[in-house]
Amino acid sequence: MSATCFVDTNVLVYARDAGETSKQPLAEAWLKALWRQRRGRLSYQVLHEYYVTVTRKLRPGIPVEDARDDVRALMSWRPLSADGVMLEAAWAVQDRYGLSWWDSLIVSAAQVAGTAYLLSEDLQAGQDVGGIVVVDPFQIAPEELL
User: Cα separations (Å) of 30 from 91, 95, 128?
Assistant: First the structure.
């Protein structure tokens, strides 16, 4: 399968969160697989949330320069910017599925990116949201999907 996966912020954060001993190795496995197969996508929203979370909210956090290096590396995944098309799509998702605004933006970014899957623990696993299937990366291994 050559489908791409849109990665939500929580997957990136758990990969750096040493305090999450059960989720960290799973998040790392997903990111390694996506890097290796070049199937990862994300948005600038995800990068913004990641940077703030790992430098200000995570305890212990990671050094600012390490977080910046992570963001710079993830720029190769061609992050999407919120534009008019994405905003309209997010409003449609919000109205149809009743998701929060921020989750609607994530789903619409995944739609605009043309991904098949959204890796997130924040939405219902297996749910099809506007043509994007939600996958909980802590319930399924990358080799089962990719």
Answer: 29, 31, 20
Report the C-alpha gap between 66 and 62 in whole angstroms. Answer: 7
Q: What is the CATH number of domain 5-139?
A: 3.40.50.1010
Nearest to 96 by CA among 120, 128, 136: 128
Question: For the range 139-143, what are the long-range contacts, defined as Cβ-Cβ under 8 Å and sequence gap of 24 or more?
Answer: 141/26, 141/29, 142/29, 142/30, 142/32, 142/33, 142/34, 143/33
Q: Is the pTM of this model over 0.85?
A: yes
Which two three-digit tokens encode residue 143?
Answer: 């080799």
**Domains of the chain by residue range:** 5-139
Dihedral sign from CA coordinates of 76, 82, 85, 89: positive
The whole-number average pLDDT for the span 112-122 is 96
Q: Which amino acid is at 61?
A: G
